[in-house]
Amino acid sequence: MSVELAKEIWAELKRYVNPQDREDAAETLVNVLIDNDVYADEIKSTFKSDSEVKKALASYLKDHEEEYDDEEEYDEDNEEDDDY
């Protein structure tokens, strides 16, 4: 999916989404873009003027950064076990 096309669709559809539901909608948008191999930097630059999407992207990155840290610790623990 083209990130530019996603931006155009988001711009048209978000006015039909209740303001209190936009945060969830933006999170879904970010997840779909990431699942379709759009890089976070590209999302950030394309949606730089959209506060909901920027907030959703920041939340996504924070959540997945913590997962990466957990995986890294797990890998380090397993490497120590391999020495025996």
Describe this structure in words.
The chain is mainly α. The chain has one domain (3-81). It has four helices and no strands. The chain has helices at 3-13, 22-35, 40-46, 51-81. Helix 2 packs across helix 4.
C-alpha Rg, in Å?
17 Å
Largest sheet: none
Number of domains: 1
Multimerization state = single chain
User: Given the structure, what is the number of helices?
Assistant: 4
Mean pLDDT rating = 86
Please report the total strand number as a whole number: 0
Distance between the termini: 48 Å
Order of helices and strands: HHHH
Short description:
The protein is mostly helical. 75% of the residues lie in helices and 0% in strands.
Keywords:
84 residues; mainly alpha; 4 helices; globular; 75% helix
Ordered list of secondary-structure elements with their pairings:
Blueprint: H1 3-13, H2 22-35, H3 40-46, H4 51-81
